[in-house]
Specification:
The protein is an alpha+beta fold. It has five helices and four strands. A hairpin with a 7-residue loop joins strand 1 and strand 2. 24% of the residues are buried.
């Protein structure tokens, strides 16, 4: 299943990177008392785009959410939360990522350390904090 994205044509990997740059978030899900879990979230109001990403990559799961205020549109979310899936997705789109390259590189480093069963340490917490800071201030590679 996870090998599906590796077989995509390069132009589709570039398209996925563009969507991730513009509508995605590379971050962590924190569960109280547990280590931070890598995740990718892509959100938009276009159902077809979200379902297409899910269909061609075979990664993640799709959810919907709507604000309670009047006239709000239904939002479609793709969550990729399995560490290996996050890793495979980022590895394949990294050459095409522009604005979230630093986020992706840090996340790949974090996951590689988890894959080696390295204990969580100060370096890992620094990675988590750096990605969180990048997401808060909306910084890119500059």
């Amino acid at each position: 299943m996870k090998e599906t994205i590796t077989k995509l044509p390069e132009w589709q990997k570039g398209w996925l990177a563009g969507i991730l740059d513009g509508e995605g978030c590379i971050g962590f899900l924190r569960v109280k008392g547990n280590r931070p879990y890598a995740r990718i979230k892509i959100s938009m109001t276009c159902e077809l785009t979200i379902k297409t990403i899910n269909q061609i990559t075979k990664l993640g799961h799709v959810t919907t959410w709507q604000e309670k205020r009047e006239n709000s549109k239904l939002r479609w979310d793709l969550f990729i939360t399995d560490q290996q899936s996050v890793y495979v997705f980022l590895k394949n789109v990294l050459p095409y990522i522009l604005t979230k390259r630093k986020h992706a590189t840090l996340m790949l480093n974090y996951i590689e350390r988890r894959m080696l069963d390295m204990p969580l340490g100060k370096y890992d917490e620094q990675i988590v904090n750096n990605i969180s800071k990048l997401n808060r201030i909306g910084r890119n590679d500059d």
